[in-house]
Amino acid sequence: AQRVTQPEKLLSVFKGAPVELKCNYSYSGSPELFWYVQYSRQRLQLLLRHISRESIKGFTADLNKGETSFHLKKPFAQEEDSAMYYCALNSWGKLQFGAGTQVVVTP
Amino acid sequence: KAGVTQTPRYLIKTRGQQVTLSCSPISGHRSVSWYQQTPGQGLQFLFEYFSETQRNKGNFPGRFSGRQFSNSRSEMNVSTLELGDSALYLCASSPTEDYEQYFGPGTRLTVT
Questions:
Q1: Which residues contact B79 (CB under 8 A, 6 or more apart)?
Q2: CA dist., res. A86 & res. A99, Å (int)
Q3: Of B3, B55, B103, the CB nearest to A93
Q4: Each residue of B18-45: pLDDT tens digit?
């Protein structure tokens, strides 16, 4: 079965510290993966997708097919990074989301 | 461009009633997807419409249905409401077969 797992419900980091959000997936085909973010009182929005291989707001994510992972990383967290982050998998036309990780960046 | 809009934003219904939610996608977007978000189950895919045809469907009972009009606006309907249908219902649109989705603010449905 296709599944997206985000093992951490809450990640608390200090400003300036590195942050890594874990995402593991199970999928029998070639995966298409995304990270979506929801800031307080804002809409869910796309942060980045694996095929673009670009850095958005200092975040990067590398698809590791061997480990079936798509972890999101940022070397120096900022207070404005505090938000809910969702990993998502395009499962044959259906976007399947993980449970989400709440990131809190404290000064 | 204006973003995805959803109406109404809040709704209170009684168990057994039915409800219709509306979504207007970003101009030019032909795909509209619907999601249910609850604290217990998270974000779950309901269905996706593309050019007035249901292209994909999630694992929800037949009480949940939807449609898309020629102008790409979409509605979803839930009949015989149950208490467990209380949730935030999100609509998202995307331009083509690209799954970069643009989300609306959601409709908060409370079933009493």
A1: B18, B63, B65
A2: 7
A3: B55
A4: 999 999 999 999 999 999 999 989 999 9
| Candidate from B58, B99, B104 with C-beta closest to A90 | B99
Q: Which residues of B touch A43 (CB under 8 A)?
A: 3-4, 103-106
A90 is written with which tokens? 């395009």
Q: How far is CA A72 from the centre of its chain?
A: 5
Q: To 5 degrees, how large is the angle CA B8–CA B13–CA B14?
A: 175
For chain A, the residues whose C-beta falls within 8 A of a C-beta of chain B are 32, 34, 43-46, 49, 86, 90, 92-100
Average pLDDT across each block of 10 residues of chain B; the chain has 112 residues. List them in order: 93 98 95 94 94 92 97 97 97 80 96 98
Alpha-carbon span B32 to B35, nearest angstrom: 10
Inter-residue contact B5 to B21 (CB < 8 Å):
no
State both tokens at B102.
Answer: 């643009």
First to last CA, chain A: 41
- Nearest by CB to B33, from A32, A49, A95: name it: A95
- Nearest Cα neighbor of B89 from A83, A93, B81 is B81
pLDDT at B97 (0 to 100): 62
For residue B46, the chain A residue with the least C-alpha distance is: A94
CB contact under 8 A, A97 and B33: no
Predicted confidence (pLDDT) per residue in A1-15, tens digit = 788 999 999 999 999
Q: How far is A92 from A69, CA to CA, in rounded Å? A: 18
